[in-house]
């Protein structure tokens, strides 16, 4: 059996790998290859999963959907040539009798359909929560969006409803329910994003506040976000001057820690203990930890997040915890992205206009017991329980990779 995995982003690569690892356990004779449409595919290389073709990091970091300058930069950087090469490879894979698993948005889904092979789709980018909750449309939802009836556009639903599409795995129960109205083979099996993340959370200790800082994973945006987050940290320090404060920072492994340390030092933090991938800074009774490992540990022990990230913010909220966000300069974490994230994650997200307002927002949240209870329920409902990758892998073994489907090639 042959399976080509298409994904278009670092977060999508990670989700794909979680499913792949379970598939390898379940199907020993599976021949696997991956084609990251965006980025270098570091996550695949780390696990020695072969890449099916050439990969290239584009200037926009994968945000060509924004159009304008990012799209123009990518076109100049060779996007069109790379896309043609990747499409040819996908078509060849289909002719050879392989199946395709697309992870991400319409781009890998479209490539999967163009392959003329059987395929399945893990939809990570869209959720009905962008437009509605369990009972009604959101006020921001336009009449056109309501007329369309789903966050997935008609042409996306068409691709998911083809006979060669053996399964669609939306990110939440509400989205699954809506897609099933169009005879799409949608399965409500959870969100692999939470695999290995969902753990029993620790309650906040009196007189202590542990804050998670999430600046994002793409440079140079991450360092610009970090500078704004440091301003937000000062607003927290002013608001909680009598509390013992610990700020834990999750830095993506691919990034260099040095620029983050330098900017913190310029803000008055003093470097203390330093280990590989972990640096501790201090200021009076406050601690600032920068790390490129043990992220799940910090997710568990922190009480609230100051976030300018995508996937990491969603994972933290999935633990039933709140996050405060504010817009940056982009290309990812713009006002539009932050506003959309607040719709996606509901009451678990509090959006403020600027970093100097974060301290007040955190005070309001942690002093509202009723809101904290709602956040605990909301996060787990919107992000799901752990174990989704195993459930999806089992379903793929019975559908996309079953002997009956495979024998038709």
Instruction: Give the full name of the CATH homologous superfamily of the largest domain.
Output: Glycogen Phosphorylase B
Question: What shape does the CA trace take?
Answer: globular
Average predicted confidence as pLDDT = 87
First and last CA, distance: 11 Å
Strand order of the largest sheet: 8-9-10-7-6-11-12-13
User: Count of DSSP helices?
Assistant: 17
Radius of gyration: 22 Å
Architecture of the largest domain in CATH?
3-Layer(aba) Sandwich
CATH topology of the largest domain: Rossmann fold
- How many domains in all? 2
State the total count of DSSP E strands: 13
Order of helices and strands: EHEHHHEHEHHEHEHEHEEEHEHEHEHHHH
Give a structural overview:
The structure is a single chain. With 409 residues, this protein is of the alpha/beta class. The protein has two domains: 2-195 and 385-406, Rossmann fold; 208-383, Glycogen Phosphorylase B (Rossmann fold), CATH 3.40.50.2000. The chain contains 17 helices and 13 strands. β9 and β10 form a beta hairpin. α9 (221-239) crosses α14. The radius of gyration is 22 Å and the shape is globular. The mean pLDDT is 87.
């Amino acid at each position: 059996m042959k399976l080509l995995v298409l994904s278009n982003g670092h977060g999508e690569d990670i989700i794909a790998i979680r499913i792949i690892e379970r598939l390898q356990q379940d199907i020993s004779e599976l021949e696997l290859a991956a084609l990251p449409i965006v980025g270098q595919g570091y996550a695949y290389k780390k696990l020695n999963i072969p890449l099916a073709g050439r990969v290239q990091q584009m200037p926009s970091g994968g945000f060509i959907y924004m159009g304008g300058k990012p799209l123009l930069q990518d076109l100049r950087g060779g996007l069109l040539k790379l896309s043609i090469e990747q499409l040819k490879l996908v078509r060849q894979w289909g002719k050879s009798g392989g199946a395709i698993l697309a992870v991400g948005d319409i781009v890998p889904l479209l490539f999967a359909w163009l392959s003329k092979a059987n395929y399945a789709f893990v939809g990570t980018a869209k959720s009905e929560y962008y437009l509605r909750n369990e009972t009604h449309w959101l006020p921001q939802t336009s009449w056109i969006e309501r007329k369309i009836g789903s966050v997935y556009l008609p042409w996306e639903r068409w691709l998911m409803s083809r006979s060669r599409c053996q399964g669609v795995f939306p990110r939440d129960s509400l989205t699954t329910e809506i897609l099933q109205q169009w005879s799409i083979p949608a399965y409500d099996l959870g969100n692999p994003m939470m695999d290995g993340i969902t753990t029993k959370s620790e309650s906040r200790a009196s007189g202590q506040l542990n804050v998670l800082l999430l600046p994002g994973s793409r440079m140079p945006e991450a360092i610009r976000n970090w500078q704004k987050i440091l301003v937000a940290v000062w607003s927290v320090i002013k608001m909680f001057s009598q509390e013992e404060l610990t700020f834990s920072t999750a830095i993506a492994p691919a990034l260099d820690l040095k620029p983050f340390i330098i900017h913190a030092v310029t803000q008055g933090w003093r470097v203390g203990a330093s280990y590989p991938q972990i640096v501790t800074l201090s200021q009076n009774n406050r601690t600032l930890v920068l790390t490129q490992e043990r992220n799940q540990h910090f997710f568990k022990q922190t009480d609230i997040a100051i976030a300018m990230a995508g996937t990491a913010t969603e994972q933290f909220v999935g633990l039933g915890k709140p996050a405060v966000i504010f817009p940056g300069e982009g290309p990812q974490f713009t006002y539009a992205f932050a506003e959309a994230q607040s719709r996606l994650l509901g009451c678990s997200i509090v959006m403020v206009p600027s970093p100097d307002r974060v301290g007040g927002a955190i005070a309001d949240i942690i002093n509202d017991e009723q809101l904290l209870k709602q956040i605990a329920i909301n996060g787990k409902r919107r992000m799901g329980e752990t174990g989704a990758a195993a459930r999806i892998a089992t379903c793929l073994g019975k559908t996309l990779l079953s002997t009956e489907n495979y024998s038709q090639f």
